[in-house]
Amino acid sequence: MSTTNSGAPLLTGEMDGLMYGIFFSGCDARGENCEDMRLVSYWDEYPVQALNTWNRTKYVGRAYLDDDGTTLDLWVNLLGGLSTQQIVDVLEWWDVAVNDFSAYLKELK
Fold this sequence. Notes:
Elements: E1 2-3, E2 9-15, E3 18-25, E4 36-43, H1 48-57, E5 62-66, E6 69-77, H2 84-108
Antiparallel strand pairs: 1-2, 2-3, 3-4, 4-6, 5-6
């Protein structure tokens, strides 16, 4: 766990050899009571048409190009809090999305 340049909490991790980050925003001055979190993973740049196809056909994980290359993210609303089971569910969905997206990108090569 670390913090972003703005002082918001940042978690980093690895699943099946793929690195990801969890960025929090809308947090109070202590970095708590955050309004949302965004799970993010980066890849080399892929054609935007392929990313659009992913976005049209998949329910979880939004793919796009930015300054870091190809990005996959998942936004989660934290207002009102999350139960332990809801957090587990989010992480399980993220695991599926990251692995499916990675396999999708390998098929494009």
